[in-house]
Write a structure and sequence with these properties.
This protein is an all-alpha fold. The protein has four helices and no strands. The protein is globular, with a radius of gyration of 15 Å. It has one domain. It comes from Methylomonas koyamae. This is DUF2489 domain-containing protein.
Amino acid sequence: MKLSHQEYIEKNRKRAVEVASGMLEGSTPYLEGAIELSSLRFEVGLPEDDKDFLAFTLVSTEIDHLPVGAPRQFWSRKALSRLEPEIQRSIKWAQEVSVSECKSILARFNA
């Protein structure tokens, strides 16, 4: 079944709500969620400079050198151990700069 453009946008907005909600609740790892929300930026029918999604693009750009998500499995334990303090600092920073945007996404798209 082929989705209409509006159905595609609604599907991605629903996914954005799921991810943002999971980030706030702690069921979605915060940095992984930020990366996914950044990737949804052009898929939710908003201008490319939307404040909420730009926050996650900022986070994603700042952490792109860290082993986050699926690529983490390919990193050595030694490297993961060495980078863990930076990952933890990055999580705290990411929450500080984008938790209000998570809440805004929920308010805007949660039907």
